From TrEMBL:
It is a multi-pass membrane protein. Pfam families: SSF. It comes from Nocardioides fonticola. It is found in: Membrane. Keywords: Membrane, Transmembrane, Transmembrane helix. It comes from the Bacteria. The keyword Transmembrane applies. CDD domains: SLC5sbd_u2. This is Sodium:solute symporter family protein. The chain crosses the membrane at residues 14-34, 54-75, 87-108, 129-154, 160-179, 191-209, 252-273, 294-319, 358-385, 406-425, 431-456, 463-481, 501-523, 559-576.
Length: 577
């Protein structure tokens, strides 16, 4: 390849720019077409509840396959190796199956427009307001992460200042969401899923060929292990017990931290209560399709580690700059211009391995991933702001057109705010650490409140908001007391490093929330039982939770057989690696 220009990281040619330009044209075209289908707020926020399961299933996994997933997991692969697969096979698939089998019937059957609205029906306005505000804040912060990484790619490609790249990237995402709402986001996410796979699969295969296959990769990792910040070869090449990832020196504590902190609290907290994901399933045409949405998404999710984590592991031995970072050296450059970090692993691997044409496809895949993630955050934010905050607490009883306009204005506002929150992401050398910290703050206590309230009818409205607030504050406290969960702001009082600090914060939030919720419920008055149908498992008739037509479908279209196959596959993969 030709020498790099002085102010760019990636040496793209005209054919690469043409591929990127064609993709942008298609994305905006989808927004224009979707705009014609938006006649009211349900169309804008929930796609008119009309989409089939295969569309929402792919959108479900694509919405999560954003900048953080791809750049963050490649960074994790470069830094930790195989233990990073726990974010998928322990930290995603079981919770996705639980969402489809157990929880989606409650969401879809109650016809709520958001997860916070479900909380309002179960616990009243106190828990609802806390949940809606914390969710809105979380989406602005996470959208900033996606935008920061998207801007970094534009900076690396064109050499523009990062702030200019951030604005340009934000305008593109803003355009198609404002035009077509959730339908535009979902149909673009389906397109983006295929573009992402087409971009990352060749990179993985070429990288494996260059290092001599899987055996060659293991040999090179073993040769470089133990130098500087690099974990031992055994820690990098075996997913269990995952000490380097969890930050615990004890094998037993590491397994407990991964299974309970990541696999239960963080994972179930994210996948079962995060409206970014649940919103895709709620846009389906039936309760059967809603249940199958996360289960269909689980099948491609099983194999995402092979195109995200594996390239990171390859970059750590093939890319000179990433190998130097892993050896504890400071290296000038990087996509942001502030020095090379693990977040740059995928970009540098693309630079070193891909010829022009394939390079353009890979760049397009990254841009697609970043836009999918940011669009998912913003489409969820505008729904919660419009329905759960503005309509509920600020301006009530206005026309549907009024709230549709509020949603579009919220989209613009969220995009502008994300430009500023993008700066926070630049403080972390591994973006997954920042993300897991945020999940510990917002998702872990919400899951505790949600799951306790769904299966224990005695839980009261007061317990709902008290548990949420206390759980969140406890997670924030643990994060600041740990060594590096919150970057340079952490105090280092608790000697847990790596992403184990996030696991510990999330576990603490869950336990504090549950204990306080039980204690408060026992001294306050619960809702009458007759008001809990569709909100509490024991008080909801079975016919309200299933689609009566599903029994007549072939096995491959039924919820439980599909979930069983996905669960069996994830067990096999855990034993294999």
């Amino acid at each position: 390849m030709a020498p790099l220009a002085a102010d760019t990281l990636i040496d793209a040619h005209a054919v690469d720019y043409l591929i990127v330009a064609l993709y942008f044209a298609v994305v905006l075209g989808i927004g224009v077409v979707a705009r014609r289908q938006v006649s009211d707020s349900v169309d804008f926020f929930l796609s008119g509840r009309s989409l089939p399961a295969w569309v929402t299933g792919l959108a479900f996994v694509s919405a999560n396959l954003g900048a953080v997933e791809i750049m963050g997991m490649s960074a994790n692969g470069a830094q930790y190796g195989l233990p990073s697969v726990h974010y998928f096979w322990i930290g995603a698939i079981p919770a996705m199956l639980f969402l489809g089998v157990v929880m989606m019937p409650f969401y879809y059957g109650s016809k709520v427009r958001s997860v916070p609205e479900f909380m309002r029906r179960r616990f009243g306005t106190g828990a609802h307001l806390v949940n809606a505000l914390s969710f809105a804040l979380a989406q602005l912060l996470i959208a900033g992460i996606n935008l920061y990484l998207l801007g970094s790619i534009v900076h690396a490609l064109l050499g523009w200042p990062l702030w200019v790249a951030l604005i340009v990237a934000a305008v593109i995402v803003l355009s198609y969401i404002t035009l077509g709402g959730l339908s535009a986001a979902i149909y673009n996410e389906v397109l983006q899923f295929f573009v992402i796979v087409a971009a990352l699969l060749p990179l993985t295969l070429i990288g494996l060929h260059r290092v001599g296959g899987w055996d060659g990769l293991k040999d090179k990792i073993t040769a470089a292990a133990g130098v500087g910040d690099a974990p031992s070869a055994a820690q990098q090449l075996n997913s269990w017990p995952g000490n380097a990832l969890s930050g615990f020196s004890s094998d037993w504590l590491s397994v407990v931290g991964i299974v309970f902190g990541l696999g239960f609290v963080l994972s179930f907290g994210y996948w079962t209560t995060n409206f970014v994901e649940v919103q895709r399933a709620m846009a389906t045409d039936s309760i059967s399709s809603a249940r199958k949405t996360p289960i269909i998404g689980a099948f491609p999710k099983l194999f995402v580690p092979f195109i995200t984590i594996l390239p990171g592991m390859i970059a750590a031995v093939l890319v000179t700059e990433i190998a130097q970072v892993k050896a504890g050296q400071s290296v000038a450059g990087g996509a942001s211009g502030d020095g090379v970090t693990y977040n740059d692993a995928l970009i540098y691997l693309m630079r070193d391995l891909l010829p022009n044409g394939l390079l353009g496809l890979a760049i397009t895949g990254l841009l697609a991933a970043f836009m999918a993630g940011m669009a998912a955050n913003i489409s969820a934010f505008n729904t919660v702001l419009s329905y759960d905050l503005w309509q509920q607490y600020v301006v009530k009883d206005r026309s549907d057109d009024y709230y549709l306009k509020v949603g579009r204005l919220a989209t613009v506002a969220a995009t502008v705010i994300a430009i500023f929150t993008a700066g926070l992401a630049s403080n972390f050398s591994n973006i997954m650490t920042y993300l897991q910290t945020l999940f510990g703050f917002f998702n872990a206590p919400l899951f505790a409140t949600f799951i306790l309230g769904m299966f224990w009818k005695r839980m009261t409205a007061t317990a709902g908001w008290v548990g949420l607030v206390a759980g969140t504050l406890s997670a924030v406290t643990i994060a600041f007391l740990s060594e590096d969960a919150f970057g340079s702001a952490s105090l280092g009082v608790i000697g847990v490093s790596g992403q184990g600090a996030s696991f510990l914060a999330a576990s603490t939030a869950f336990v504090v929330d549950v204990v306080l919720s039980i204690a408060v419920s026992l001294v306050t008055t619960p809702k009458p039982v007759e008001e809990l149908r569709g909100l509490v498992y024991s008080e909801t008739a079975r016919e309200d939770l299933v689609d009566p037509d599903e029994a007549g479908y072939p096995w491959y279209r039924r919820t439980l057989p599909l979930a069983g196959i996905a669960l069996a596959l994830v067990v096999v993969l855990n034993f294999a690696f």
